[in-house]
Amino acid sequence: MMLKSLFAIALGALLAGAAPAAAAEDLLQIYREAVANDPTLASARATWEATQEVVPQARAGLLPSVTLVGNANGEHFYEKLHTDPSLSTTQNFPSANYTVSASQPLYRKQNVVALDQAKQTVSQSDFVLTSARQDLIVRVAQAYLDVLLARFNIELTESQKAAVSENLAQAKRNFEVGTATITDTNDAQAKYDQIVAQEIAARNDLENKIAVLRSIIGRSPGELKRFGGTFEPQLPTPNALDAWIDAAVRDNPQVRIAQANYDIAVLEVDRQRAGHYPTVDLVANFGQAYAGASPSVGGSFSSIANDTRTGLIGLQLNVPLYLGGSIESRVRQAVSNLEKARQDLEVARRSAQLSAQTAFSGVTSGVAQVNAFDQAVKSAQVSYDSTRLGLEVGVRTNLDVLNQQQQAFQTRFNLAQSYYNFAISGLRLKQAVGTLGDADVEELNRALRG
Fold this sequence. Notes:
Layout: H1 2-8, H2 27-37, H3 39-51, H4 54-59, E1 65-81, E2 87-107, H5 109-177, H6 182-217, H7 241-251, H8 253-273, E3 279-293, E4 304-318, H9 326-393, H10 398-432, H11 438-449
Antiparallel strand pairs: 1-2, 2-3, 3-4
Helix pairs in contact: 2-5, 3-5, 5-6, 5-8, 5-10, 7-8, 7-9, 8-9, 9-10
């Protein structure tokens, strides 16, 4: 309803170039396209998929391993004795062997901890992907509303340009008939030139805003649907800052990511300390080797061959006694990284608190701003009408009229901007507490449809 009052006061010419509503794209369509085409989200999704493999890789350190090694060789032997008569011998020695080795870790503390770390890493990747998805929602909504606002700014500028142009023509006519001074004409011309410069800047701003949205969805958007008029700003629920801050410090995706980093760092200290521990493996191997010799040529050797089989099963104990101080060094490094993770977690919590507080203030003040600007638009229109009347009776100048006209248009723009700022603050507040999702996009989209 308040939005209706915003757009109702704009001149009908503002929508002259708009495409039919049926052809306009809404926020939900743009968002779904962004989910499919945004490279930042695609990168996060690929990283998530890759991270899922760390658990099977870590679990492999606790499962049996079996290897097969084999080789085959052929040796050629030639010998010549310089006697009278001379004697020579030629012999071929083929050989082949293979070995199958198996190992089952029985006690490897480092590998157990590594598996726990991998599980934490996979859990963390869920929060990373969630954070990327929520960031996309805010980026798409911001880019979408920025385009709407930039287009509305152009429409207001065009409307103001038309009004100033009419005022300029009237001032010229009045000067020609002697009912006004050249000052009125000069003032109107200066305002007109200023509006032309503002229109150029507004069109450039629109191109920049479209470029941002294009970088997300991979193409230039068409006509976008505007607010339909049923969107009414509401205070957050609960309307208590402390409740939102507590939720943000606990559930913000960046806090959860930092918490997972801290937990992984704790495990890393345990894993490095486990480098002092012995390891016990169950080992087994089986091997077979064949070696032979062909009958000699020109000599007295006969054919020789042997076939050997070996098998082994047992326990293997490995006790690290001294490794040059590398284990102690890695433990100290892990402890320092743990302290870093602790401080990063505190940074994430404070950032989440700030984000929640900023967004909460944006929502609560946004409601008041919308109401204030809605009233300001009405007051500006009344003031403009009064100033025009004052010009007719000679108590106001043409410059006063132009200035008040510009103020009226600026107030309309401020009202539209306050709606968009409120909408983004609402999304950022939910992002701060980690609850932002597709349902919020659908809710905002319903407000756009009206």
